[in-house]
Amino acid sequence: QVQLVESGGGLVQAGGSLRLSCAASGTIFSLYTMGWYRQAPGKQRELVAGITTEGSTNYADSVKGRFTISSGNAKNTVYLQMNSLKPSDTAVYYCNADFHYHPSGPGKYWGQGTQVTVSS
Looking at residues 74-98, what average pLDDT do you find? Predict the structure, then answer.
């Protein structure tokens, strides 16, 4: 069973930066898509950024130009560099992945989530 483990969340002031990491275990195969979703209190979970093994990326409009998703050198790892953070970025961030591409929604596997809090 694939397991995703996130790290790197925390408390930061507006304008600051954080880097989230996600590593998958439980499989010898490459996960085709890996990405990040977030959920703020009272809001639906939303896509933040995604990347495929071919290097194709996509971002939510709200984070374009501020966040960068990248794959790690180790197989099945992904990072999210978050710069110029805003209080509106405060949420629980979840790593998401799958062996297949799902154009209409998230992949099958989820991490446990890591809290990101941006103070004003």
Answer: 97
